Amino acid sequence: MNTTAPLTHSEEWQQMTALAATALPPLKELFNSDPGRAQRYHLSAAGLQLDYSKNLLTDTIKQVLLQLAQRAGLQDKIDSLFRGDHINNTEDRPALHMLLRSPQHSTAREQQVHAALASMERFVGAVHEGQWRGYHSTPIKTVVNIGIGGSDLGPAMAYAALTPFHSSRLQCHFVSNVDPVHLAQTLSTLQASSTLFVIASKTFTTVETMQNAHAARAWVLASGIPESALPHHFVAVSANTGKAAEFGIAAEHIFPMWDWVGGRYSLWSAIGLPIALGIGMQNFRSLLHGAHLMDEHFRSAEPGQNMPVIMALLTHWYYHGHNAHSHAVLPYLQNLYLLPAFLQQLDMESLGKQVDQHGNTLQCQSGGIIWGSAGTNGQHSFHQLLHQGTRFIPADFICAIASASPQPQAHLQLLANCFAQSQALMAGLTLKQATAELLQQGKTPAQAAWLAPFKVCPGNRPSNTLLMQSLNPQTLGALIALYEHKVFVQSVLLDMNAFDQWGVELGKTLGSGVFKALSSGSLPTDFDASTSALAAQVIAHYHPH
Ligand code: F6P
Asked: What is the C-alpha separation between 440 and 496, in angstroms, rounded?
């Protein structure tokens, strides 16, 4: 237990909540009265631009938020993170995902990282060049990554995001769900002899991954490939080489992972093997480089000019000053459609906790709900609530100036929609404007007066816009690292360990008891009445006698 007063009791936190309770002129007026606002609340780093001017922010508020960060000891915590202190204190280890993208070769860990990258490079080259082949010397055409959580979401998201960079030689698929339909549907169009499975699991004990890995093995054998040829079709990425070897993967085909890399921070390691296979090693190294540029920015930029720090402070301001419960992530790039799901794990597994790093009950809300989808699709679904609902939901818009598509007009439509959405959220539509619009459309004054309230959009709804020149391996790397560091800063403001995830364990333990009951057909007496009734129906179906 820590006996120092929590940050919530600090003068700076009180100042923050007092400022939140003080009415601020509408954002539209803040823009009108301050011609330099857009330039002042703008940052560039690692190929990304952040326009944070459409936030409920003034120089005074920014100052108080920065003082809060200082009171939380942010700079020391950043130094501690990069130094490799055991900031994951409940698991007594560092969180050193930044090392995975560092060009340094000095320390033993850095050398391990570069040796692993070199072995990935050799492997990717061998598969691409056809030296690594399947049964009967068949060239590998498809890669199926079997993993879940951090061993799936990052690689799947990055592979989709970098579609224009895909190698024409290979297609990658990602299977995560223990629902057998996921694997079966993926395999239904594939040929075993040209398929390579990557079994990705840091622990190599995750039930879903093990179940799917065994099913994949059975599928390969059932296709007529002999057991002796299995090594041509299975490689693994794991920190648990013993378990991977038990599954039957030869030591030289197990790519390493380390306990100082958390699952949700692991796409930069050999967990990124399917990305490297999909886009080639040179592009994978560009992804690492982009993340490294963001690391350097995060480590060295002063807090008031630091992109992850500013984004985290704004989220903190909305969660704890304005009682926001969620944050929308709205990529206006179809290839980033999996980004919200990736960020859900990154943010919610890191910040979804009820105690601080000392085990004390939090004196404020934990992290919030991350959600969203690719624009413009969301505009025709949930944006209605963003514009007119009574809830307060800050949002991040993410877009790129250039597109890989040969249709510039369509891309301009996409960008126009993106900018217009943040503009509409910020400016809104007053009753007077709505009435004038209706009269102009030919409505009678009575009709206009009746309809106008339905059209009113309150505005003053905050958002960030992240703009990049184009979505490519380097800018994607920077974008992901930006959110990783943002989450870290939020954890500092909550005095929380962002790198453990004890909450997922209970469900796993109970799940194994329920599975035992369903598969044996015997209900234990200590199940609650609801679970017993649900399980009884399944047992009646699978064990009729
Ligand atoms: O259950 C949560 C979790 O531990 C995640 O943190 C992790 O990314 C995922 O499971 C998969 O774990 P593994 O890579 O060990 O299979």
From this structure: 55
